[in-house]
Design goal:
The protein is an alpha/beta fold. The protein has helices at 10-13, 17-30, 74-93, 105-123, 137-149, 152-157, 159-163, 174-190, 202-210; strands at 2-6, 38-43, 53-59, 62-67, 165-166, 171-172. The protein has a 4-stranded mixed sheet. The chain has a two-stranded antiparallel ribbon with strand order 5-6. α5 (137-149) packs across α8.
Amino acid sequence: MIKAIHYQNKSTEVPLEALISECYDEVRKLLPQLPETIQIYFSDYGILAESGVGGYAYAHDIITVSIDPDFADKKKQLKDIRSTIFHESFHILQNYTGESGPFSAIENAIYEGMATIFEREYCNFWQPYGDYRATPEKKLKQWFKDLQNLSLKDFEENYSNWKFFHTELKERWIVYKVGTWIIDVVLQKHKLTILDLSTKTAVEVLDLYNQ
């Protein structure tokens, strides 16, 4: 169940509330520890050009959802709204939200990786931000080291570079791709599912990676 607390474009967003509520109820069947009701703050923040949708786990009971009313492929957009609710709900369960933290660069990567794989597994497609399959493993390992070596201050000052587009490296979504790769390694190495990791912290998951 959801409760809308802010609208950016009411004529677009109100008709989508039933879908968002249905998606959240679906997630709660997989993650029953989530709040029974979640608040939705409709915004225009962080909309991806590829999907016409953006999302952000703002607080322990608030998800920001951004929807481009002019996005042409409405069928794809609906699919991405569903996956966004899955992704952000996983963040809320793990207390990786705007009101939590701060989180180091590698913690960011691991939490984003877990949420990305959760949506991938249950929505049945790879999001471009987590699709590392065309990235050489050598490069992923180097990025992994780079993220581990970043101080919290350096990461916060260069947050957009590492999470969205690195202006020097000319690479997108480094945090997401590294994180998704790390989680896939952990799941395969330890024969786990993403639900097995849902109650673990990033530090605990990193320990599993290093074992």
